[in-house]
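Supplementary Methods. Inverse-folding protocol.

Structures were first reduced to a discrete structure-token string of length 311. This string, shown here, constituted the complete conditioning input.
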């Protein structure tokens, strides 16, 4: 059984605003002053088990664990669900015999829940169908670096309602960032998560707008978009291109919203969900987001298994 002092990071849904602020501050401090923290993962091993392929997530975790003095073991599930081979509860129990934490990128959130149930070590969500918490923390780290105090700022997400949208909503509401989500009809976010985000927004004095029309886009500090087809979705692009075309993030939309910067978690498809010229512009934070994946994840790892708090 898992020790009650152990903490998983499957999402930030049950975090407090103060805990969220503290983790963001730790990520910023670790990035700016890594020498203060030494090697908090020295002698520790992290297993990364991935059902889905990855570029940024895999490399940033691998190099980040190394920078913290730890050792990462990568397990490729060969593009198939873990449960097809072995019960995730048993996988978690076995990995806990050797490792200090599990990082997992999976198709279904329930797989993470089952891994955590079996493992008496922390389990970290590196992406599932419902959430992408590491991405959201990295994004708000970048937003803070560019805009300073986040409370009262506005992030507008435009496009397919997905796992990234969910985590941006939750983390943003906890940090006091006003939220706008605009998706085509039929591609909305989870109604359950929307309800939870609305509760967090109310509790933290955050303005929340969820709509299907691009005309509902008001003023925003940052526009955010993601691919129109999530990884593993084999829907022909031609079937959704017409629906999504009005939701392309481009220079015209940036000007309409008065946005200073644009974000995209990547992989990005140039001149589909976002124009290539905007990706390459000075308003683009795409590479800062990618860079910050490692720093955000290092803060999570250092706090969960490295015994680190903000000095």
């Amino acid at each position: 059984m898992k020790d009650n002092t152990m903490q998983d990071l499957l999402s930030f849904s049950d975090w407090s605003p103060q805990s969220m602020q503290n983790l963001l501050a730790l990520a910023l401090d670790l990035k700016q002053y890594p020498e203060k923290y030494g090697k908090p993962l020295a002698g520790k091993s992290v297993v990364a088990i991935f059902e889905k392929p990855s570029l940024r997530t895999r490399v940033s975790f691998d190099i980040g664990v190394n920078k913290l003095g730890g050792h990462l073991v990568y397990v490729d599930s060969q593009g198939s669900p873990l449960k097809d081979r072995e019960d995730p509860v048993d996988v978690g129990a076995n990995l806990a015999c050797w490792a200090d934490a599990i990082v997992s990128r999976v198709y279904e959130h329930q797989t993470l829940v089952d891994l955590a149930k079996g493992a008496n070590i922390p389990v970290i969500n590196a992406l599932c169908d419902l959430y992408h918490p590491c991405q959201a923390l990295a994004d708000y780290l970048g937003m803070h670096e560019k805009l300073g105090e986040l409370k009262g700022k506005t992030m507008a997400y435009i496009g397919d309602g997905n796992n990234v949208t969910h985590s941006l909503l939750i983390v943003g509401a906890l940090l006091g960032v006003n939220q706008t989500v605009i998706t085509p009809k039929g591609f909305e976010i989870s109604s359950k998560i929307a309800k939870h985000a609305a509760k967090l927004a109310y509790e933290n004095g955050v303005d929340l707008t969820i709509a299907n029309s691009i005309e509902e886009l008001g003023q925003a500090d940052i526009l955010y978009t993601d691919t129109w087809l999530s990884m593993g979705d084999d829907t022909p692009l031609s079937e959704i291109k017409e629906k999504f075309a009005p939701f392309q993030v481009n220079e015209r939309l940036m000007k309409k919203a008065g946005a200073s910067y644009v974000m995209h978690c990547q992989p990005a498809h140039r001149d589909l969900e976002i124009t290539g010229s905007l990706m390459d512009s000075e308003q683009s934070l795409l590479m800062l987001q990618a860079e910050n994946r490692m720093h955000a994840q290092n803060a999570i790892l250092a706090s969960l298994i490295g015994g680190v708090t903000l000095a």
